[in-house]
Amino acid sequence: MIKIMEPRRLKLAILASGRGSNFDAIYAAIEKGDLSADIKILISDQEEAPALGKAVKRGIEAQYIEPRNYKNRDEYENYVVSRIKEHNVDLVVLAGYMRLVGKVFLDAYKWKVINIHPALLPAFTGLHAQQQAVDYGVRFSGCTVHMVDEGMDTGPIILQSVVPVLPEDDEESLAGRILMEEHKTYWQALQLFAEGRLFIKGRKIYITGT
Ligand code: GRF
């Protein structure tokens, strides 16, 4: 069993491609004192991502990095990692980051890249997870905070929250219900790192002190 990290006030890098409501929720939890962390930098691969403007307003360093300016994914990730390393961060938090993370990232931050997915993994990986849940006819769905590995939404699971799927649900209504849980679950998972309560054995994460 390997301890993921000792207790500490976390230094976070956030990667976001879009509106950044999970970024909002993490920021709010820090402001309230519920999450012991500081957001050191927010990076986006989308110039128009609202998350960038939100970061600037909050006095957080924000940078748009255009992947097409790099020869390949490794070169793009090398640059992103170099920017993150300048801040000596403990965790890289994917908050609506719409790219698969590659080897460069994972070698630099083993078990330190975290994602939230809007389904109860391993069900409904990839895009439109909420539509997949509606189409399949499951009675419950939810969100999963997990460590990122080479696969798509396959890494070790830290926390999950469950919501009901109602007969009249469509993708949008279910996404809204799940999002409310995401906003509570993501910072709670990060706080487990801050409290030094996470251990890993194989692909299984153990939480101590509960
Ligand atoms: C969330 O549903 C998250 O689960 C998924 O992408 C969406 C991001 O939303 N990975 P936001 O940008 O945090 O509002």
Search tags:
210 residues, alpha/beta, Rossmann fold, 3-stranded antiparallel beta sheet, globular, binds 5-O-phosphono-beta-D-ribofuranosylamine
Tally of domains: 1
- Average pLDDT number: 97
The topology string of helices and strands comes to EEHEHEHEHEHEEHEE
* Bound heterogens, unique: 5-O-phosphono-beta-D-ribofuranosylamine
Tell me the Rg in angstroms: 17 Å
Number of strands: 10
Largest sheet: 7 strands, mixed
- What's the name of the CATH homologous superfamily? Formyl transferase, N-terminal domain
Q: In summary, what is this structure?
A:
This protein is an alpha/beta fold and 210 residues long.
Characterization of the model:
The chain is built from six helices and ten strands. It is an alpha/beta fold. The chain has a single domain, classed as Formyl transferase, N-terminal domain (Rossmann fold). The strands form two sheets. It has a seven-stranded mixed sheet with strand order 4-3-2-5-6-7-8. The mean pLDDT is 97. The protein binds 5-O-phosphono-beta-D-ribofuranosylamine. The site of 5-O-phosphono-beta-D-ribofuranosylamine has 13 residues, from α1, β6 and α6.
Architecture blueprint of SSEs:
Layout: E1 2-3, E2 10-15, H1 21-32, E3 37-44, H2 50-57, E4 61-64, H3 73-85, E5 91-94, H4 103-108, E6 113-117, H5 129-136, E7 140-147, E8 157-164, H6 171-194, E9 198-201, E10 204-207
Helix pairs in contact: 1-6, 5-6
The structure holds 5-O-phosphono-beta-D-ribofuranosylamine.
